[in-house]
Amino acid sequence: MVESLAAVWNGHARGPGITMHRLRDLSDEESGQSKRDAALLANVGPASPLASLVHAQADLQERGDAFVTGSRQDRDRASARLQNAFKAWLSAFRSFDDRTCAWLSTEFGKEHPAYVKFKQALNAEFDASFGYRLSCALRNVSEHAGDVITDLSRSEHKAPDGSVQRQARVSLDGPQIARRFGKKMRAATRDELADAATPIGIQALVAVTMLSCDHAFCVLIDALGQNIQGTADRVRSFDGEARHHRPDADAAFLDTSTFDELNLGTIGLRENPLGLAVLAEENLKAARSKVSQYVAPVYGPADLR
User: Fold this and answer.
1) In terms of Cα–Cα distance, which of 130, 145, 152 is closest to 196?
2) DSSP string of 62-129?
3) What is the pTM (predicted TM-score) of this model?
4) pLDDT tens-digit readout, 43-61
5) 28: which of 38, 103, 183, 305 is 20 to 30 A away, CA to CA?
6) C-alpha 90 chain-centroid distance
7) What is the dihedral of CA 297, 301, 304, 305, to 10 degrees?
8) Shortest CA distance to 95 belongs to which of 213, 236, 271?
9) What is the pLDDT of residues 145-192, one digit of tens each?
């Protein structure tokens, strides 16, 4: 199917809905490059594996809050939802590594600096952070396991002012996890768990793991800086061309429709590529700042209470 450059505008002045006008078909080279640019913007923007991991963390936090504040009658259901949310977060954590590496390998190859630096960053986090090592171990054993969180308990008491104060424990018992899953873990991680003298808080575990993932992602964005800038330049060129032909256009889109003018509700246009390109440039600037200031924290079991 031929891909085209289209101008899009809000059609309130000309009738209901949003309309589109095709300007020209793209060449084969432009079409191929635009698909690569779209994949780049997807993997470094709001649809990235890291964004999915952040969403999973937010859902886990929401389920944790519901467990703390819910009624006694709903405690069992809230506990089950929290267990499922933690396993969903572990699944998203696995996908962060797998999906990013699969895209990098397919698009650039495993010898590309971006792939190499991303893997090096993950390996460095594995070496430095017990939390990241434990999350890696749990993601590998949790898929076909039952509940992973070993301690889900809640207590409440009345404060002097008459209000009800609630406290909850949402944690892992290291020795218990070592006994349960140890055969499927690296020996070093199993030993660390077996020697853990205090419970490992889920919130702390997730927080330090997210720090590791965010750093690795920043390293990746930095390594892809030239690619991101090239994509942004091409998107701006398309946008400028569309606005030259249609000064009243609100945005330029790349479309695979076969009609000259349509209502947007009848076709599947990509997201606004200019908006995604600007966001990618902002992410690049922020990533470079973070990478330049980063000092890898060293976390052990006692730090995850």
Assistant:
1) 130
2) HHHHHHHHS-STTHHHHHHHHHHHHHHHHHHHHHHHHHHHHHHHHHT-TTSHHHHHHHHHHHHHHHHB
3) 0.85
4) 998 889 999 999 999 999 9
5) 103
6) 12
7) -150
8) 213
9) 788 999 988 777 777 776 767 777 899 999 999 999 888 889 999 999
